[in-house]
Amino acid sequence: MARAAKPWLAPAATFCLALGLYLLTLQPDISWANNGGDGGELIAAAVTLGLPHPPGYPTYVWLGKLFSLLPLLPIARLFHLFSALLAAASAATVTATMGNRNMPTAVLAGLLVATAPLVWGQAVIAEVYTLNLLVVSLWLYWWWRRPQASGWLGFWAGLSLTTHLTSLLLVPLTFWRVPRAQWGRLGGAILLGLTPYLTVPWLGRPESMISWGEPQTISGFASLISGRLYQHQVLALPPAEWLLRLSAWWPILLAHGILLGWFLLPWVWRQTPPENRPPILALSLAGLAYLGYAFLYDSADAIVFALPAIPLLSIPLTTVWQRWPRAAWMLPLLAVTLNFSYPPIKGQSVEPNNLRAVTVPILDKLPADTLVTTPGDPTIFTLWYFQLAEKQRPDLIIVDQNLFGFDWYRARLQRHYPELRGLGVNDWPAFLAANETERAVCAIALASDQPLFCPNLSDVAP
Asked: Which of 164, 315, 402, 449 has the fewest Cβ atoms surrounding its Cβ within 10 A?
């Protein structure tokens, strides 16, 4: 009599296989690859227990701080490893969601998530999206397999909102899956999952070098955790740009379609028994909602918002691939081929390929106490990484031109650098003029052909 496979075996196999692939392609150092320009800020915020850009990502900050205590250098590579572990755990969770009745099918489901180009691209850089992917996958496990455990289901739904606000799309599905009699318990569990947001005012304390807004006030707290700064970009892509975006995204969406079979959703619906159709339809609609939200979000890196659609759609679509198991097992191999031919996975970027080689020599040649200006992210985020996470050139005063327009930013600069002049009003030229007589002033723009410009210092070569 054959023994039943141990329930942990398939998820463990998925985790190890996925992590092995990620380790082979892990970014070696600080990088902007795969839309990872926020990585420097996120690392610096986690190391210093600060507050990164809205909505603050408190769960990432606290977990990242714990992970940063491990003795691995450079710190950036440690955080890339953090992302890889989270992504591998997400794939393993999808495998566990499929159950242990058909181990090959369960492992296949997890590997299709792990090797999807979008997932793989985020798994090798420091970003928040793999943490969100893991929490969404955990939510999916309880939603699909154990919806009667409303406490756990609600907790993961709430916690997912602390990892990315797009998880609001999961809230209606969460309540739909649970009997109305348990909604009170479910709501309490969601609130419990939201508790990391209670630490936002402390993370944004006055002495923190990285903090957005004024989270100690009710209005500032609400503005930050709701992402008000970026709300004008939601569903705001001009129709004139739809075709351009579709042409840019088509290769990636096509790769996902080949691997996950999204184009087979109507066929899945017809083949599903009537009693199983409601949850299949719910997951399919949620996945498509993520895709639609990402497509209409007016930002160059919006495609990463579609990441949670991959595990959501993997559940109904695995029922397709299990009908052709031999052909299905070729899909992860195809995914590996696609990823190694997909430029961002190799770390290629339109930005500097080796940020350390570009940035450190610039920082080393600056005079002591230089006022360094930046043109916005990702340059400011990269400099925060080197100064706050690696503690290079703590004497430099770094001021970002884009952030300068916010009253809270100038007030924070004044608290940290009381010697600076011209912070009372939003007047950038006046600010530079007021301080250039007291110290050297240099502009750093890492994505520019001239990354260093010091107009009043002839001995500092660009």
From this structure: 449
**Which pLDDT tens digit goes with each residue over 162-204?**
999 999 999 999 999 999 999 999 999 999 999 999 999 999 9
- 192 alpha carbon, distance to own chain's centre: 22
- The secondary structure of residue 239, as a DSSP letter, is G
Residues 49 and 196: beta-carbon distance below 8 Å: no
Kindly calculate the radius of gyration of the chain based on its CA atoms and give it in whole angstroms.
23
Q: Rounded to the nearest 5°, which phi and psi values hold at 233?
A: -95, -10
Residue 346: per-residue pLDDT: 42
pLDDT in tens, 292-336: 999 999 999 999 999 999 999 888 877 766 666 666 667 777 767
CA distances (Å), origin 369, targets 207, 372, 435, 441: 20, 9, 12, 9
Residue type, 381: F
Going by the DSSP 8-state scheme, the letter that residue 386 receives in this structure is I
CA angle (131, 133, 135) in 5-degree steps = 70
Which residue ranges in the chain fall short of pLDDT 50?
1-2, 343-352
CA 221 to chain CA centroid, Å, is 21
